[in-house]
Design goal:
The complex is a heterodimer of chains A (454) and B (488). With 454 residues, chain A is an alpha+beta fold. Chain A contains 10 helices and 21 strands. The termini of chain A are far apart. The termini of chain B are far apart. Classes of the chains: A alpha+beta (454), B alpha+beta (488).
């Protein structure tokens, strides 16, 4: 690899030095090295433009069942030595945790498709500014205003532990987001590619501009329960919320909608998989403990089939580790990070055409749990909401507030789009995690509990 | 406090930026130490310390902004980062419509340190841990059927150095402490949670360990546990009615954060977050005349108040902390501003630019945006003054639209109020409304004795994402004719 990465050899050396410097029964080292760049624009001009080189070295030391973790952003020799010393010292004074099952051991990793593209890692400020200008110009050409960003990222992840675990990956992403705003109504589009050369800026601009033009002068539509067609941006929200509950930890804490229901029908005729090896996703074959990530069918034609585990939740609950650990944290220790809602057979246009009276939703906004166990979520529609009448997009409508059980909504699935969109990954703990490939959906009932004046 | 080594690197970076053509530049060095500890179900589940240190350069070149950052603290890297910031600025100029302008600020040489009574970083680890173990045990002893108990704290020390090409040189050391407990129950087809002292758990202040002790976690643990279990069989909150609502102090804090704090961010009002966070119904043409709420509503912007999570000496543009009003007697009168956005309105900055560490660009963030106390006495006085309504306590769910108008909140706990008395516990309470109408329906705010300075250490903003720490003082308040009970 090039000079834009730290490189596998250098990261392995850092991990080895940290492991050698540790005083404990077991130890784990995680390094995240990242070059992050984001060019942000609004009112059709760039107003924030940032580039940062970031690093994180986390050392977890185990003495019996005493565990401590210390993080630094220094990768130099002294930084490595100090963080290993501090973690070792801290592990000596922490109380025992009898629920700790020890670090996960060495297991063979299955290679995943490469997610690294050199040209993306080498993207320049001018590359991003030109793409931003293209998006701004497209909106201006339609007498509309543009806001959004263009980003390129390179991240390396290295994991080693004293039981022989070693895992390394380098990955790149380039993504663009565009909201196009008129006096009354807006549109939205997003694109993501591992390779900045294939990032579809023109398509992003066209989609958002067309949507914004159609969204002007929205009408009132009374809140209530409607059939809906969800664009992939909105579907992602459903899948992200439900995915967060398809974990061993959520089941253990009794807050998952599949608690006690594995093997039972829990929602509609949809299939949700976590596929770390999907070549059209953001593949990575191991988790944040360096364990092999399994491809899992979480929901198969509406039947709950599996939840994901990290080593510690698996140990506590007597289950098998599926290799889905996030960086060690007590609130969400594991997550499905490569979710794909399996496609159906319909085009987006067919989903709309089959709807006699429905609401077309571009995306959701500010969605929050109201009741996790029932998967009730509230949020808003945004950037293009339309009435469908007799199979046609009839007119734009003002945005709604919804309050809806997400798994109940999927329970009424009437149609599934055939085309999957790869959407911008969620970010946690300084790492891009949780990629989504989802289709458009047609759902029989979705409850809007309030409206806006725009 | 950061010193000569960082100062020398900062000046080197600024020299490089100037040489490369920057007309303005600043350098920020930030070292942040954090310790997070969590006890779960009786055991120490997590001890996580971090010590993160790096720097960034922000520059204007060709009339546009650039920013670059790195954790490598060497002279060569200072040169590289400064040159990159200028290169990024020149790229930004590709879409420039007008030159970046900064409202004036007097450059100062200054230091500031958060006043603390007990420096948590000098305590023994077991001294900090014991209150959590005690509180967690007290919850499980009171209610052994609880599914999950948690007790946590976070301590924080951030050393910052800001040096600008205009001559500012400001070193600060900020301390924060926060602590919380949570009890979760499952049964009867329900899952319920109670947290203390704040919503989502932790309330945090710029303070020392005295702030963690003040909440008496173990003393409050049995009550919290009892409430979490009682909620499983409590009466469901009435659905889709209109009634009077009294919000607890910690719920009013979040209501203020979401429906006043964010819409008074001037960058948002000027549209710079339109694709992500959205815009604001509080547009500049409404400044000074728009009726935000009733005459009982007074909301202060004050980064000088001791303890607030938005309290500091200077912001990350070198502007001194200040006090003023966002809403006075119900009228919208003030924004949170940066030097650049203030210039757009012909004003000067009130010092609200803060960055999430060394690697992020300063953004307009809430400092301490507080609903100031009224004259309604204590919470019990306010309940006694209410014939019919619902008291809602501690946030559980929050959502608001992209102009900050249509909101819906849920709280962990509700109580029916009948004839001036709390009567029946309610589960799953929610309320919804439109921001100006809601604040316009406020007819009473409790007095100073009920006023608490809360801190939210988890406010998200910006792309790339940043977590901000914001302060909000609030006392319980009453709102009339509120739509309640929206659970599908």
């Amino acid at each position: 690899m090039s000079g834009v990465t730290v490189g596998e050899g250098a990261l392995r050396s850092i991990c080895d030095r940290a492991l050698q410097a540790v005083d404990g029964d077991q130890a784990e080292v995680v390094v995240i090295a990242r070059n992050a760049a984001l060019t942000r624009f609004a009112n059709a001009a760039i107003h924030q433009n940032v580039v940062s080189r970031e690093a994180e070295l986390r050392v977890r030391v185990v003495r019996g069942t005493r565990v401590a973790m210390v993080t630094t952003d220094r990768l130099d020799d002294e930084g490595v030595r100090l963080v290993a010393r501090d973690a070792s010292d801290l592990a000596k004074i922490t109380p025992e945790n009898p629920t700790f099952g020890g670090l996960a051991g060495d297991r063979d990793l299955v290679p995943a498709p490469s997610a690294y593209v050199e040209r993306t890692a080498e993207a320049t400020p001018l590359d991003r500014a030109r793409a931003a200008k293209q998006l701004c110009d497209a909106a201006r050409g339609a007498s509309l205003s543009a806001a959004g960003y263009v980003a390129t990222n390179m991240q390396e992840l290295a994991i080693a532990n004293s039981l022989g675990v070693w895992a390394y990956s380098a990955a790149t992403t380039s993504d663009a987001e565009l909201a196009v705003l008129g006096d009354a109504g807006s549109g939205f589009a997003q694109r993501l590619s591992l390779d900045v050369r294939t990032l579809d800026i023109a398509g992003c601009a066209r989609e958002a501009v067309d949507k914004a033009k159609a969204a002007q002068k929205p009408r009132d539509l009374a809140p209530g329960t409607y059939e809906v067609v969800l664009e992939p941006y909105a579907v992602r929200d459903l899948i992200a919320f439900l995915g967060s509950q398809l974990t061993g930890n959520a089941v253990e804490e009794g807050r998952s909608f599949v608690t006690g229901k594995l093997g039972q029908k829990v929602t509609g005729d949809v299939t949700l998989v976590d596929d770390p090896f999907d070549p059209k996703g953001l593949p990575r074959g191991f988790d944040l403990e360096g364990q092999p990530s399994q491809r899992l069918t979480l929901i198969e034609r509406g039947v709950a089939k599996a939840v994901v585990y990290d080593s510690q939740t698996a140990y506590r609950t007597g289950q098998k580790n599926t290799g889905h650990a996030l960086p060690p944290n007590p609130f969400q220790p594991a997550a499905p990070m490569h979710l794909r809602l399996e496609p159906g057979t319909k085009t987006r246009e067919e989903l709309i055409k089959e709807s006699k009276r429905a609401v077309l939703i571009t995306r959701f906004w500010y969605t929050r749990w109201v009741h996790q166990l029932r998967t009730i979520v509230t949020g808003m529609t945004r950037d293009g909401t339309f009435a469908i009448e007799d199979g046609e997009i009839a007119y734009p409508v003002k945005n709604f507030r919804f309050t809806q059980s997400y798994h109940d909504a999927l329970g009424g699935t009437l149609g599934i789009g055939r085309d999957l969109s790869l959407l911008v990954p969620g970010e946690q703990f300084g790492l891009q995690v949780s990629s989504y490939r989802v289709p458009a959906l047609r759902l029989g009932a979705f409850t809007f509990t309030g409206a806006t004046q725009y | 406090m950061l010193g000569s080594v960082e100062r020398d690197l900062a000046h080197r970076a600024l020299d490089t930026a100037r040489t490369r053509g920057a007309t303005y530049a600043d350098a920020r060095f930030v070292r942040r130490a954090v310790e997070d500890v969590l006890v779960k179900n009786g055991h120490l589940q997590n001890v996580d310390r971090s010590d993160i240190f790096g720097f960034s350069v922000r520059a204007i070149a060709d009339g546009a902004w650039g920013f670059a950052a790195s954790p490598v603290l060497t002279a060569d890297e200072a040169d590289r980062v400064a040159a990159l910031a200028v290169e990024v600025a020149r790229a930004s100029a590709l879409t420039k419509r007008e030159d970046a302008r900064l409202a004036p600020v007097k450059p100062v040489t200054a230091t500031y340190t958060t006043p603390v009574e007990i420096d948590p970083w000098t305590m023994r680890f077991d001294e900090r841990l014991q209150p959590l173990l005690d509180a967690d045990a007290a919850m499980r002893q009171a209610q052994p059927t609880l599914r999950t108990t948690r007790a946590s704290y976070e301590i924080w020390r951030e050393e910052k150095l800001f040096v600008s090409s205009e001559g500012a040189d400001i070193a600060q050391t900020l301390y924060e402490t926060g602590a919380s407990i949570a009890a979760e129950s499952v049964g009867n087809g329900e899952q319920q949670i109670r947290t203390y002292p704040g919503s989502g758990g932790r309330s945090q202040n710029t303070a020392g360990w005295e702030y963690a002790l003040k909440w008496e976690l173990a003393k409050n643990a049995p009550r919290l546990a009892d409430e979490a279990v009682a909620l499983l069989t409590a009466k469901q909150c009435p659905q889709d009615i209109r009634t009077s609502v009294i919000l607890s102090s910690n719920q009013l804090m979040l209501q203020c954060h979401e429906s006043c704090g964010h819409p008074i961010e001037l960058d948002r009002a000027l549209g710079t977050g339109a694709a992500f966070a959205g815009t604001s119904f509080l547009t500049p043409d409404r400044l000074g005349s728009f009726r935000f709420g009733s005459e009982h509503v007074n909301i202060a912007i004050d980064s000088t108040r001791t303890g607030g999570l938005g309290t500091f000496g200077y912001d990350d543009e070198g502007v001194p902390a200040s006090e003023g009003w966002a809403v006075k007697d119900g009228v919208f009168v003030g924004y949170l501003m940066s030097r650049e956005t203030a210039a757009a309105l012909g004003k000067t900055s009130n010092g609200t630019m803060r960055a999430d560490g060394w690697s992020r660009l300063p953004l307009i963030r809430m400092t301490n945006v507080s609903v100031m106390p009224g004259s309604a006495g204590t919470l019990e006085d306010l309940i006694a003054d209410t014939d019919d309504g619902i008291y809602m306590d501690t946030n559980r769910s929050w959502s608001i639209d992209d102009k900050r108008l249509n909101f819906q909140f849920g709280t962990q706990l509700g109580w029916e109020i009948k004839n001036g008395k709390r009567t029946t516990m309610l589960r799953n309470p929610t309320y919804t409304g439109m921001t100006p109408e809601f604040w316009g329906s406020c007819d009473a705010v409790c007095s100073e004795s009920e006023w608490v300075m809360w801190g939210t250490p988890n406010c998200g903003k910006g792309q790339p994402g940043q977590i901000g720490h914001t302060g909000h003082g609030a006392a319980p308040a009453r709102f009339r004719n509120v739509r309640v009970g929206v659970v599908n």
